[in-house]
Known about the structure:
Number of strands: 7
Order of helices and strands: HHHEHEHEHEHEEHEH
Bound molecules: adenosine-5'-triphosphate, 2-amino-6-hydroxymethyl-7,8-dihydro-3H-pteridin-4-one
Domain 6-hydroxymethylpterin diphosphokinase MptE-like: 39-191
Family: Belongs to the archaeal 6-HMPDK family.
Distance between the termini: 11 Å
Strand content: 5-15%
Helix content: 40-55%
Catalytic activity: 6-hydroxymethyl-7,8-dihydropterin + ATP = (7,8-dihydropterin-6-yl)methyl diphosphate + AMP + H(+)
Low-confidence stretches: none
InterPro entries: HMPDK_MptE, MptE-like, TPK_catalytic_sf
Keywords: ATP-binding, Folate biosynthesis, Kinase, Magnesium, Nucleotide-binding, Transferase
Amino acid sequence: MDFATWEPIYERILEDFGFDRKGDEKAALFLSHKLTEENTVSLSELKAVISGKPVLVCGNAPGLRSDLLEINFSAFTVIAADGAAAVLMDMGIVPEVICTDLDGNSEADIEKEILACEKGSIVLIHAHGDNIDKLEKYVPRFKRFIATTQAKPFDDIYNFGGFSDGDRCFFVAREFGANKIRLAGFDFEDNNVNPIKKKKLKWAKKLIGI
Ligand SMILES: Nc1ncnc2c1ncn2[C@@H]1O[C@H](COP(=O)(O)OP(=O)(O)OP(=O)(O)O)[C@@H](O)[C@H]1O
Ligand SMILES: Nc1nc2c(c(=O)[nH]1)N=C(CO)CN2
């Protein structure tokens, strides 16, 4: 999705949550300073695992494990949203792609994302105004990654559209030409979550429906 199409949606999201665009921009700049030639994954590498392939996008709803029992993984490129990567790793599955803002989960889950990266997952690390501390702490531990922002993209900081980790996975799958996208571990109506998460799920449902 080009930024001109995304920007009005992004502005509505910022307003709905009361988030500050300047904070997102500062975080993106911070992340850009962590990129080197050695730790940057190319978009062609990402495209190679998605283009023309059926993609399974895994969210981290409580039903993820049971959804996964019905799925033949070998038929899909697996893209995991943040904590979903830990669930997959626990099942012995290394997702091909992970989208994470590094702020949703326990330290143990982040360690599993770092391990997945070492085992070959392409990790898309997302900068936003409320995760600079996490970026500072964990980004040096990821050997290779792609940097993303929800604000205006620049240089090697990309914006493929989407806001929370789950819907960004979906946008990545679409942007890079998945021939089919199946969802697992998405429960947009989950009431067992805090009000901010509820609002994020409302936006996720809307964005994935676009
Ligand atoms: N019922 C649900 N509870 C939690 N996550 C869900 C649910 N349904 C779908 N998801 C998707 O799973 C993604 C990963 O969730 P997780 O809790 O691991 O990370 P998070 O960083 O806390 O999530 P978020 O990006 O929403 O802040 C979410 O971004 C969301 O899109
Ligand atoms: N500024 C800001 N942006 C976000 C945030 C957040 O908490 N703050 N959370 C997200 C999904 O977890 C995605 N983007």
